[in-house]
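Data availability (excerpt). The following record was deposited with the supplementary files.
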Amino acid sequence: MKFTYCALIHQTDNELIVIFPDFNSCMTFGKDIQDATSMAEDALSLVIQTMLEKKIPLPKPTLDFRALLQMADKELPPVAFIMPVTVFVEAAHKVVHLNITCPAEKIDIIDEFAHKCGKKRSTFLVDSTMEKIANLKATAYH
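Predicted structure:
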């Protein structure tokens, strides 16, 4: 299923803060626009997937820019821009949010390679891990 919601992007000195005002607690961060976009897609997918699994109705997307700006958190820096984010979510899979610890330089390498493969970080990590497991199983039984 395809979903599009608008994100408010607030810029600080060293990062972009991404807020989805249609969802109470959906926010993420990025070091640049490419990272912020990838993180926004991951965060939005996770929130939508969770709500679908729990049978919580999704909010109607706010597409009016004036209304979106009025929804902005006044404690954050002013909104730098508004970005529509489109995600595709399969309702059949249960998604689990996972935090991992990894050296920053390795995350940069993973993100760059995932982008070159046309994937988001989380999809790339899961696909790569599953491929590694399949290869290990194949060699273990031969």
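Summary of structural features: The chain has two domains: 1-93, 98-142.
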